[in-house]
Amino acid sequence: MSTAQTAFLKGHGTENDFVIIPDHDGLIDLSPAAVARLCDRRAGIGADGVLRVVRSAAHPEARAMADEAEWFMDYRNSDGSVAEMCGNGVRVFARYLQRAGLVGAGDLAVATRAGVRRAHIAKDGPDGEPGPVTVSMGRAALPDGEVTVTVGDRSWPARNVNMGNPHAVLFVEDLAHAGKLDDAPAVSPADAYPDGVNVEFVVDRGPRHVALRVHERGSGETRSCGTGACAVMVATARRDGADPAVDGRPVTYTVDVPGGRLVIGELPDGTVEMTGPAVIVAEGHFDSSWLTAS
Ligand SMILES: N[C@@H](CCC[C@H](N)C(=O)O)C(=O)O
To answer: Which residues form the active site (predicted)?
Structure first.
């Protein structure tokens, strides 16, 4: 007797890792429990999140973007919650489309819950190593208002930055001050982030060079967060007195994350561009019934 199989791939961008579920016609009912099962690092495949690949025309949340972007990134955090955007995810999503022969190196558009994001897949290097992927991440929003992040008995002022999803960015002297980041740090006032928040702790590494640790909403501490790194870049630029929209000059920062390095720039029109690696490490199948078994 043959059992129905579901295809998956595993990939990462600076070690922010994802289970990729190709579901081009939008036929899979991916419940929060199914996502949590896939992402479980002991009983499942293990990942920080899931990227379901659906044709925009086949998904009610993406149909309106179908003329601009053929593919919709249905992103979920490892606890099953839905998020608007995932920066590392877009690069890995682009790599999946390339590997599947659905796009070539060059430009493509990806529909997300935060809107259409444009990406560029660089050509492979001379030794065949996959080229980096650059994503135009849209403009950062910097809502007014004081935000405070507390870990243990220490508190820091934080900058509220929205990159399509919410972030609190704070500067520390030592990344160890973030403590154990599996649990969400306390962020106040509570109404600053009605839907929860990703929290980035940042240290300086040199001129236009910072490093971060992150607690991701719905996933805990991860090795990287692309939207978080972009939020950090913008918050650091403003702290350093740089604002391309005012100065008329682009500004670029190197942002180190525990899982690697991202290069992020802000252009005079306010657009943030992120460049980094995207890797597929495995592919396979599982019994479809496993996702729903009790
Ligand atoms: N890892 C992602 C962000 C994923 C979503 C985030 N946890 C949220 O809930 O907003 C990235 O690379 O941007």
So the answer is: 86, 225
pLDDT score of 142: 97
Express each pLDDT in 206-233 by its tens digit.
999 999 999 999 999 999 999 999 999 9
CATH dotted code for 5-132+278-291 = 3.10.310.10
Catalytic residue among 9, 133, 158, 225: 225
Q: Calculate mean pLDDT across residues 17-46.
A: 97
> Which of 225-259 are b and which e, b meaning 16 or more Cβ less than 10 Å from the residue's Cβ?
bbbbbbbbbbbbbbeeebbbeeeeeebebbbbbbb
Nearest CA to ligand 1 atom 3: 86
CA dihedral sign of residues 51, 46, 284, 294: negative
Span(s) in the chain for CATH 3.10.310.10: 5-132+278-291, 147-276
Tens digit of each residue's pLDDT (9 = 90 or more) over 115-135: 999 999 999 999 999 999 999
Q: Closest Cα to atom 4, ligand 1: which residue?
A: 86
Whether residue 112 has its Cβ less than 6 Å from ligand 1:
no
In this prediction, residue 293 carries a pLDDT of 83
240 phi, psi to nearest 5 deg: -85, 5
| Catalytic-residue membership of 225 | yes
The yes-or-no verdict on residue 1 having pLDDT over 70 is no
Kindly state if the Cβ of 164 falls inside 6 Å of ligand 1. no
Residue 88 marked ligand-binding: yes
Ligand 1 geometric centre to CA of 227 (Å):
6
165 lines ligand 1 (CB under 6 A): yes
For domain 147-276, give its CATH number from 2.60.120.10, 3.10.310.10, 3.40.47.10, 3.90.650.10: 3.10.310.10
List C-alpha distances in Å: 244 to 188, 229, 268, 271.
30, 18, 4, 9
pTM of the model: 0.97
Probe residue for ligand 1, chosen from 219, 224, 255, 272 as the CB with the greatest number of ligand atoms within 8 Å: 219
